[in-house]
Specification:
The chain is mainly beta. It has two domains: 186 residues, Exo-inulinase, domain 1 (Jelly Rolls, Sandwich), CATH 2.60.120.560; 179 residues, Jelly Rolls (Sandwich), CATH 2.60.120.560. The chain is built from three helices and 30 strands. The strands form four sheets. Strands 1, 3, 4, 6, 11, 12, 13 and 15 form an eight-stranded antiparallel beta sheet that branches. The longest helix is centred in the first third of the chain and has 28 residues. It is elongated and about 75 Å long. It starts with a helix and ends with a strand. The relative contact order is 0.14.
Length: 403
């Protein structure tokens, strides 16, 4: 090999790396797909309301009419995980929004469009970029504690929105400023919609959208951690007994039991979102996560516990052999989300230091930058020293769908 060849090899490597980098950049850019061709409403359909939607100057325009029902122009396609970007401008006095993961069902409130909405709010309240649950739960992430985001939206001008939905994480930006940061898994897919809010103003008010594009990132789905037949993948320690009856995990113990009873996962988990249905028949129980087995200790495990019991503290966060109560709800709060002696749904999301608990789709506890336990076992508890009976079913973990 001559000197020229030796000098040429590094240069070729640089060129090759540049080419590879360029291809990667191109591929990333190629993931973007326009949702609006700038000429027509192809790929969109209007659901509810009578606002006028039309195309003008490369924009979709929504023009209000006096009515009581909100109007929505919605994509025909549904999306799960995605990155959405668009630009918008709204007339003063008109409230609007961008629906994401939204749906319309005949048997839900007579066909009302519902689910997450990224707010467009030119009022003094200035919640543009916040997340409202349309026709369902109301505000999930307003901006009253995010002054920088409230100042990001510019009335009377074009504003750029970015929305990222991945699993149970929903984040928004307004003109590059972080706005909402929500953890919620109630709805994992649906259409995208452009809202014109109901108004009684006779003079038409308008909202404009342009440069609407999306990266479709697939979707997340729920997969079972309990097959409804046996306790494969789980093992029991301590007192009490666990059995499967008609597809339900049935756990019980008597007050004569000195040791807590635990049904523990064979596997360790670090970051996850898990949901389950429970019925607290009697006594105290809980869902442990990021926990360590300590069989010589009467409590059985050390770690986080999302509280389950028959009459109080449901949905709170407790750290056994740690900080004790981390988030303890009041009796008044528990009454809002817990249904005694009925089936209830609990969802626990733990990703890094962000831990969020929901009961029946109501947020009951949240830690945003917790420096505590990073991983460990899952476990269901029967509290020792008391009569306890808990029933569990539909134990599932949120995972990316296979392509």
């Amino acid at each position: 090999m001559n000197r020229f060849s030796k000098k040429l090899i590094p240069l070729l490597l640089v060129v090759l790396l540049f080419a590879i980098s360029g291809c990667a950049t191109m591929n990333k850019k190629d993931k973007w797909k326009s949702l609006f061709d700038g000429k027509s409403l192809k790929g969109w359909k209007q659901l509810t309301g009578h606002a006028n939607y039309y195309v003008e100057d490369d924009c979709i325009i929504g023009s209000s009419v006096p009515e009581k029902v909100n109007s929505f122009l919605c994509t025909e396609k549904h999306y799960g995980d995605f990155i959405l970007e668009l630009e918008l401008k709204v007339d003063q006095g008109l409230n609007s929004g961008v629906q994401i993961r939204s749906n319309q069902f005949k048997d839900y409130k007579n066909g009302l469009v519902h689910s997450y909405q990224v707010e467009i709010d030119p009022s003094e309240r200035a919640y543009s970029g916040g997340i409202y649950d349309e026709a369902r739960r109301g505000w999930l992430n307003d901006l009253k504690d995010n002054e920088e985001a409230r100042k990001a939206f510019i009335n009377g001008q074009w504003n750029k929105y970015r929305v990222e939905c991945i699993g149970d994480s929903i984040k928004t930006w307004v003109n590059g400023v972080p706005a909402a940061d929500l953890v919620d898994s109630m709805t994992l897919s649906g259409f995208i919609g452009l809202q014109v809010h109901a108004t009684q103003t006779k003079e038409p008010l308008r909202v404009r959208w342009r440069n609407i594009r999306i990266q479709d990132l697939g979707r997340h789905v729920w997969k079972p951690l309990f097959d409804g037949k046996n306790l494969k993948g789980w093992h029991a320690i301590g007192g009490g007994q666990w059995k499967v009856v008609d597809g339900v995990i049935d756990g019980s113990c008597s007050k004569s039991e000195e040791y807590h009873g635990l049904l523990v996962s064979d596997c360790n988990y670090s970051d996850f979102t898990i949901r389950l249905n429970f019925k607290a028949v009697r006594g105290n129980s809980g869902f442990y996560f990021r926990s360590d087995e300590v069989p010589e200790d009467k409590v059985g495990v050390h770690g986080f516990q999302a509280e389950i019991d028959d009459n109080q503290d449901v949905g709170g966060l407790y750290e056994t052999m740690g900080r004790g109560w981390v988030v303890k709800p009041s009796a008044e709060e528990v009454a809002k989300w817990f249904k005694p002696q009925e089936w209830n749904q609990m969802t626990v999301s733990a990703h890094g230091g962000r831990i969020v608990v929901h009961v029946n789709d109501q947020k009951t506890a949240e830690l945003k930058e917790d420096a505590g336990r990073p991983q460990g076992h899952l476990a269901f508890q029967l509290h020792g020293g008391q009569d306890a009976h808990v029933m569990l079913k539909d134990v599932e973990i949120l995972t990316p769908a296979e392509l």
